[in-house]
Amino acid sequence: MTQGQAGAKRLFDFATALVGLIVLAPVFLLLAVLIKLDSRGTVFFRQERAAVGGGTFRIFKFRTMIVGAYRSGARLTVRRDPRITKVGHILRWTKLDELPQLLNVLVGDMSFVGPRPEDPYFTNFYSPEQREVLSAKPGVIGPSQVEGRDEVEKYPEDCENVEEFYIHHILPVKLQRDLHYVRNATFGSDIRFLIAGFVAVLASQFKTGFLARNSYRLAALAVDMVLMVVSYVGANLIKFDWRLGADEWAYIGKALIWVMAVRPVVFIYYGLYQRTARWIGRRDMAAIVKAVSTSSALVVAGTYFSLQHHSRAVFLIDWILLLFLVGGARYIASSILSGAARGEEKGPFVKVLVAGSGHGGEAILRSLLEDPKSRFMPVGIIDHEPHRWGALIHGVRVMGGATDIAMAASTHGVEMVLVSLADLDPVVVREIAEACDKLLLEYRLVPALSDLLAQATSEPVKKIILSSQARI
Prior knowledge:
Blueprint: H1 3-23, H2 25-38, E1 44-50, E2 56-62, H3 86-94, H4 101-107, E3 111-113, H5 120-123, E4 139-141, H6 143-147, H7 162-184, H8 187-204, H9 208-213, H10 215-239, H11 246-269, H12 282-306, H13 312-343, E5 350-355, H14 359-370, E6 376-382, E7 392-393, E8 396-400, H15 405-412, E9 416-420, H16 426-438, E10 442-446, H17 449-454, H18 459-471
Parallel strand pairs: 3-4, 5-6, 5-9, 6-8, 9-10
Antiparallel strand pairs: 1-2, 7-8
Helix pairs in contact: 1-4, 10-11, 10-13, 11-12, 12-13, 16-18
């Protein structure tokens, strides 16, 4: 590149970066707030990068990882890196984390087009020929982003040393592209690279591999987006007695822009599509409540400033409807998937009683009922608390106490009793064990997970466990 072209390139970089920073200032502010709300730490991530001529400079990026991430792992990130924050995943996917590099372009550390700035640690592995890459100013967009963008996808799933794999398998190819750029760069080719890089960034949002791996998550998102529209339109119909004119429909269309711009992002943030559809628990329902409530609050705020005279009752009805629709859809999906899995299993079942109706007994019941490989079928529950008798837990009835084991066993053909040590004190456990001994009924003692981890089982229970093991 001639000296005149280099001057024109610097002028273009400065002017474009300055305009970009002014225009994108609201986006910077919004992303900064989201990053601070999401996790502890600074908004920007600063790290040394190799500069033109072999020196170093500190790059600007939006922080996408937890504080101290580079002290707790490799310099490079791979798929499903646990150090990446919730907002960080979105920023990396959309490449919005790169926006602060406009500051580096403005001060002259970087250019819009050039080899991507490398960690100085890896420049130690450059050959003398490859060090020619350092003669060009690093860029926001480089040859590897246009021609070999999916670098993360190149790491094998079982890669134990990502840095070594990068040095030997990815870096040489990357430097070959950068060398070709450095030796043939002109101001005109940089403009073409900039346009091609922008197109590549847009195209990267729809990677074939990503779509294939996450097809079920994208399908769930699509279903939720339909439910968002149905909920908001339904709320308006309910509020206005199912009579909406042309003006009302036009108003609904404008409000739906806010709904569809805000809610999917909030749902993704709360991890609704990282959860397994087959199992739905309290934490999953809590996440749905948080996602619907937060997105509703943001939609209310957005429409307050852009649309006038919006009915607050519509938002309340919409919130209730969406909770019902999204939660109901998850429950139906869970029921279908669990039923299909259980339907695949064949063979005789061992009928069991569960002793204990607290958290431990509930966990045992849920495990037996939902595990498609389980050969144990719970037919009843026994508990020492009379006020629980007759209650249903996961559809299984609490039949009575220890004295009712004989009747329950004879009526339902019980072959085994599973005793939840988490729910029962040692005296009750001993009573159940004695009742089973009289009936020649097999029983198993199931300790709480916390007790297994802490190895803190009490002496009386230890004796019962040992004696029951000897009999079984």
